[in-house]
Each structure stands twice: as C-alpha cells, then as structure tokens.
From TrEMBL:
The lineage of its organism: Eukaryota, Fungi, Fungi incertae sedis, Zoopagomycota, Kickxellomycotina. It comes from Coemansia interrupta. Its EC number is 1.3.1.93. Its main location: endoplasmic reticulum. Belongs to the steroid 5-alpha reductase family. The chain crosses the membrane at residues 171-189, 201-221, 242-264, 270-289. Residues 1-23 are annotated as: Disordered. GO terms for cellular component: endoplasmic reticulum membrane. This is 3-oxo-5a-steroid 4- dehydrogenase. Keywords: Lipid biosynthesis, Lipid metabolism, Membrane, NADP, Oxidoreductase, Transmembrane, Transmembrane helix. GO terms for biological process: very long-chain fatty acid biosynthetic process.
C-alpha cells in the first residue's frame, strides 16, 4: 500500500493554499506491504530520505496525533492505502548505552583526580582519613558497577535520545556527584588527624553504613537483572516485573539507589552529599511516577497495591 509522509500542518494555516516550500521534500509517498509494521514504515522513509534514520523519526497519525509505537502493526492504527502519516524530525540522536557510559565516567574521573591529586585542588598535600578512604572506595565502586551494568545488564526500551540532551544529563552526574561531591568530601577539613575525621570515623557507625550501602547496591543490581530478564535480546518487549522489590514499588531500582546515597550522606555528613541526595531522589521520584503511570496505563492487570517508589506511601 502507498502511504503519504508529510509534516503536520501549522495550526491556523490555510491548508487549501499551503504549498511545499522550495526544496522541501515533503510530502512524499512510500510503499509498504499491507501487513507492515511501524518499523517497516520507518525503514521505507529512511531509504527515501537518507538523513531520516529510524531513531530520528517520530511518526503520528490522525487529528489526535496518535504516536506510532515501534513494533506495532500499522493496522493497529487503522492506517490503510493512501493515508497520510505525519513525521517529526527528532534531530541527531545518540545511543542510550553511549549516554550511560559518558554519564558514569565523569564521576569516576573526578573522584579519582580529586582524591589522588589534592595539591592541584587544595594547594596542599595531606593524609586522607579512614572515612575519606572508605567513601572513595564506595563511590568508585558504585559508578564502576553502573558502567558494568551498562555493558552487560541493561537492555534499553529506547535505542537513542537527542544528542544535545547528553550534556544536560551529564551535568547532574559530572558536577553534582562528581566534582562537587569529591571536592568537599576529600578536603583537608576532614583529613587524617582533624576533629571532623575523628567525629566521622566511629568504626561501628562506619560498619553499619557500609553494610547499608552494600545491601542497597546489591539490591539495585538484582532489580536491574530482573528488568533485563523481562526483555528478550534484540527486542523492546515490555512486561510487568515481579519479585524482589517489585512487589511493593514499581521502581525498586530507584528506591535502592536512594538508600545507597542516604548512607553516603550519613557517613560524610556533607552538605554536598545531602544536596546530591535531594536532587537525585527528587529526579528519580519524578521518573518513578512517570513509569508507574505508564505501567498502569499499559497493563490493565497491574497490581493496584504497588506504589511508585516509596513503599506504602507514594
């Protein structure tokens, strides 16, 4: 069947007199089979317009602007011969896996540099305290774990994101959990021999908080593995997750990540750690609410007792 590809008209424009601008490639037609999917249509568009690779396209149909979801059949949207599908150029894209590598690499670099080269950042050298050494190992372990999960665990429901977004996303990690956190936590104010180091270095409290951190990290990993196992390789299948953590909240991965950073904030008693905890928890809570609503909208049998991120509360 033949399908017309066009850009959605500007509201209020005179549709009867509107004409394509000079050099415009829209509208144009593509041919697909009667049982074609949205992915088939995107491939046909990309074949005709080389710059519009599938991940760069957002397709919609009808006056209600129904977004066509990858993997769905065109018949699901009652699209037939000689119908018009509208396209939006999402701009240059970057793979989500690459984005994650970039985001988590920043804190690894900043914590390594600030901890190991204090003269460059503080103008002096000193011996790090036990609490500083402990936090360094835990934070480095956290972000190295995230890099390994990106490589070997995560299966992404969306292949790409707009290229410019990587700078906004990276700021959160590179600056807040990277440079800002490292600069204040590893400063001479809590170095070996200071009153603050002695106050923070209670062995029992350090052991408890380290145990909480390790528990949260391992629990977070378990939830990521659960999510991975829901999606067969090479697909974007979505299913209801069950099991450890998922029986009480929709996003236990965010819950356990929050617990991990609570332990870091409690261990350091640093305003920088507290600030990052507040910002990151707030952002994860927003994501959790969005994911929770998506689950409920997509799956009519989704468990009604689950909260989004905070058990029994929200």
């Amino acid at each position: 069947m033949r399908i017309t590809i066009d850009k959605r008209p500007i509201p209020g424009a005179d549709k009867t007199s509107a004409k394509p601008s000079a050099g415009s490639r829209y509208p144009f037609t593509v041919e697909v089979s009667d049982d074609a999917t949205v992915d088939d249509l995107k491939a046909a568009i990309a074949k005709q317009v080389k710059s519009m690779y599938p991940d760069r396209q957002r397709l919609s149909y009808g006056d209600k602007k129904n977004i066509l979801e990858s993997g769905s059949a065109l018949s699901k949207y009652s699209i037939g011969d000689n119908d018009t599908v509208y396209i939006k150029d999402l701009g240059p894209q970057i793979g989500w896996q690459t984005v994650f590598y970039i985001e988590y690499l920043g804190p690894i670099i900043f914590h390594y540099l600030v901890y190991n080269f204090p003269r460059f950042f503080y103008g002096t050298t000193f011996e790090h305290s036990e609490i500083q050494h402990r936090v360094y190992l835990l934070v480095m372990g956290h972000f190295i774990k995230r890099e390994l999960e990106t490589a070997f665990v995560h299966r992404f429901s969306h292949g790409t994101m707009p290229l410019m977004n990587v700078f906004k996303n990276s700021f959160h990690y590179h600056m807040l959990s990277g440079l800002n956190l490292a600069y204040w936590v590893y400063s001479p104010a809590s170095a070996q021999g200071t009153l603050l180091a002695a106050k923070l270095g209670n062995p029992t409290i350090m052991a408890i908080l380290t145990g909480v951190f390790v528990f949260a990290e391992l629990s977070n990993l378990k939830t990521h593995i659960t999510l991975r196992n829901l999606r067969p390789p090479g697909t974007r299948v979505r299913r209801i997750p069950y099991g450890y953590g998922f029986d009480i909240v929709s996003c236990p991965n965010y819950l356990f990540e929050t617990i991990a950073w609570v332990s870091i904030a409690a261990m350091t008693r640093s305003f920088a750690a507290l600030f990052f905890l507040i910002v990151s928890t707030g952002q994860m809570y927003i994501w959790a609410i969005k994911k929770h609503k998506q689950y409920k909208r997509e799956f009519p049998d989704y468990p009604k007792s689950r909260k989004s991120m905070i058990p029994f509360i929200a």
